UniProtKB/TrEMBL annotation, chains A, B:
UniProt organism field: Larsenimonas rhizosphaerae
Protein name: GntR family transcriptional regulator
PROSITE patterns (alphabetical): HTH_GNTR
One of the record's GO molecular function terms: DNA-binding transcription factor activity
SMART domains: FCD, HTH_GNTR
Key words, A-Z: DNA-binding, Transcription, Transcription regulation
Domain HTH gntR-type, first and last residues per copy: 1-68
Length: 231, 231
DNA sequence: GGCGTGTACTTTGGATCCAATAAGAAAATA
DNA sequence: TATTTTCTTATTGGATCCAAAGTACACGCC
């Protein structure tokens, strides 16, 4: 807590929760008082958040909260799509280690276990989120490339760009179950391609996989306050 | 100059020139004195540079200069490759405006003019760099997506990831000329694909185009001090 | 002579102070 | 009454100060 990175994290949260509305200027002093710290850590955090893409610099008068359109969200998912695709291709082509392969297969088993009941409950959703996060993280880290990992991490700071954004719609659990079944199938095929060293296929599958929330039409109606979204 | 962004720019330059050696800790006070400013703007700049990937945070003791391996440089180019590929695909699929098309064709003409002599001189190289930069910038901006543009911009902060890094080898001007001829051909084909709305083809061409410095074997022997590079 | 503890120093993180500047409000003039 | 000019105020950028933490060195003890 003595570290200013917590200020970054707290601000990230507050922004994506809409506490600071999009497109509105955000003052250092006000934030500092609300967080109970001085201006200094806030100023530092602003620079970080700016680079993460959550704040934009206004001509010569501080920062304002970035507003995202539906288009932006789609783009962020597309960016993740090509970057994770790249990671999968690299991993397949450079060869996957037995350790990583074992870990990925464990993810497949764990994922299968979640879906075994034929329906979803709350714990299932949480478990799947963990397994899914582990799966994606494993592939990226296995490429051993900090450059790719960083590019992905930065993109994932944008709200709903991350593969962790499950967007589970508790009103349509049936449909959500179908989505996870498809996701699980994707995972199986991706591991298959990785094991077989099929770079292009791994990339293609991973790219398609990233679109799952778009394909399943659960992209909008988000908690995050989009700028000009009506529906 | 009164803006601290100049500190960021100056530091970026100093780092990529090797004034601060890779993998070595970088102290706020020392930098502040060298730049003739106080610690505050340096501290702010460090946060920006960290997000840009030029500095890495050391456990709880400030920052050190990031070191890049050959592998990292290749990865950065691959990242640019897939991102510019994405931009090209989007642009082709969403349809390219007549204005942008005209501007791109102007780039093609200008590029052709540079190569018309059959050989390169110093001015030619500079001109081509400008035209090339304009060409790539046009395509990215035409997608109207800040998210993609930002992802690219961040990646381009890594040394030699940017398409502006021509890496012209004045000792082998003949080979460099051949490289630019190929690049020009790529540009022509890319515009063709964009005009025809062929998204996949545009993406594929753009991705290949990004690899030109790798294909032409002029990737290493760089000014930037790589960590463990012998050749 | 080696190892451990303690102290001094270096360096970062946070708070406050001061100056520059831009925005906003009020007043004066046309 | 509208417009322009000036003054006040809010807010950022830079500098300095203080506290906390970590490192290194030295001294002492085993």
């Amino acid at each position: 807590m003595s570290d200013n990175s917590s200020v970054v994290a707290r601000l990230r949260k507050l922004i994506s929760e809409g506490h600071y509305p999009p497109d509105e200027r955000i003052a250092e002093l006000q934030v500092a008082e609300e967080l109970g710290v001085s201006r200094t850590p806030v100023r530092l955090a602003f620079r970080t958040l700016e680079q993460e893409g959550l704040l934009v610099r206004v001509k010569s008068r501080g920062f304002k909260v970035r507003h995202f359109t539906e288009q932006d969200i789609v783009c962020a998912i597309e960016v993740r799509s090509v970057l994770e695709g790249l990671a999968a291709r690299r991993l397949a082509e450079q060869g996957i280690s037995p350790q990583v392969l074992t870990a990925l297969e464990q993810c497949l088993d764990d994922g299968q276990a979640v879906l075994a009941n034929g329906h979803l409950n709350h714990d299932d959703v949480a478990t799947w989120a963990r397994v899914n996060s582990r799966f994606h993280g494993l592939i990226v880290r296995a490429t051993q490339s900090d450059v790719i990992a960083d590019a992905l991490a930065r993109n994932n700071h944008l709200p709903f760009a991350s593969s962790d954004s499950l967007l589970v719609d508790s009103d349509h659990l049936e449909r959500e179950y179908q989505k996870l079944v498809v996701a699980q199938q994707h995972h199986v095929l991706i591991v298959q391609a990785l094991r077989g060293g099929e770079g292009s296929r791994a990339e293609m599958l991973m790219r398609e996989h990233a679109y799952i929330n778009i394909r399943y039409g659960r992209l909008f109606g988000l908690a995050y306050p989009l700028a000009d979204v009506s529906r």
